[in-house]
Amino acid sequence: MIPKIVVEKMDMETNIEFICRFVNPEFNRQNKTRPFAERTYLLYPELRGKILDTMNDEEIYNTVKPSVEQAFIDKKLEIDSRIEELQSAFDKIQYELMTNLINTFEMEWPEELDIITCYVGCISSFPRNVITKKFFISYEKDMDMLMMVSIHEINHFVLFEKWKQMHGYNKENEPSYPETLWFLEEMAVDPTLNIPCIQNVAPYPQKAYEQFYECMIDGISAEEHLINMFANRSSMEDFLNTAYDFIDKNKELLM
C-alpha cells in the first residue's frame, strides 16, 4: 500500500487558529524550539505590538482574525497557484518517494491510511499531525523550500507508523515537545532522508534543528551520534530503539 499525497487549500478558520497559537505569549514561553511569534510578525507585520500578555484567547483571536481574512483575499490567486504547483510536483515523484521511504523504514504502510494531506495557507510555521497524516505549509515560500519541508513532514508520518508497529501508541494526542519520541522524529530527519534512494528522487538536502548539531555529547554533536547510529544499524528497529534510548538519556542537554 502506497498512500497518495493530496494538496488542498487550508480552511481559513484553521489558519486563524494557527496564527493565534503562534503569537500567544504563553505558548511561546512553553515552546522555545522555534521563534514562533517573530516569524508570524514578519508574515503579518500589522500584528506586531498588538498581542499583549494580558490578552485572553478570545482577545487574541479577535485581533488576529481580520489579518488572516485579508490575507486570504489578497493572496487567493497565489495560494491557488501554489497548490497546483505542489500537486503537480508530488504527482511526478510521490510513488517512488513513498515506496523508497517505506522500504527504508522496513515496514508495510497501513491500508487504511491511503491519503496524506498537505494544506496550503498563510502561516509562519509549519505544523503537522502524525496521527491524522496532515501537514500545513505556506504559499509564500519558494517551491524548493516547500518540497523540502513537505518531505520532512512526511518522514515524520512514516517514522511514527513504524514506531507504532514496533511499540504501539495509545495516546490521544501526537508526540510533542519535550517528549522523547518528538525528539526522535526531528533528529531522524537528517540520517533517514539524506540517502541516495531519497535524494535521487527528491534532491532536497535535509537538516534537523540547528540545536542538535550544536549540542556536543562525548566530543561530537548529538545529531552526528544519530547519523552514526543509522549508518551502523543492523535494522531500522535497531536504529530507532538505540536512538530513542540515547535521546532519552541525554534529553536535558538537547532541550
SSE topology:
Layout: E1 4-9, H1 12-23, H2 25-30, H3 36-43, H4 57-74, H5 76-104, E2 115-121, E3 128-129, E4 134-138, H6 143-167, H7 180-187, H8 189-193, H9 196-199, H10 210-214, E5 216-217, E6 220-221, H11 222-231, H12 236-254
Parallel strand pairs: 1-2, 2-4
Antiparallel strand pairs: 3-4, 5-6
Helix pairs in contact: 1-4, 5-6, 7-12, 11-12
What does it look like?
- This protein has 255 residues and is of the alpha/beta class.
- Helix content is 58%, strand content 9%.
- It contains 12 helices and 6 strands.
- The strands form 2 sheets. Strands 1-2-4-3 form a 4-stranded mixed β-sheet. Strands 5-6 form a two-stranded antiparallel sheet.
- The longest helix has 29 residues, at 76-104.
- It is globular, with a radius of gyration of 19 Å.
- The protein starts with a strand and ends with a helix.
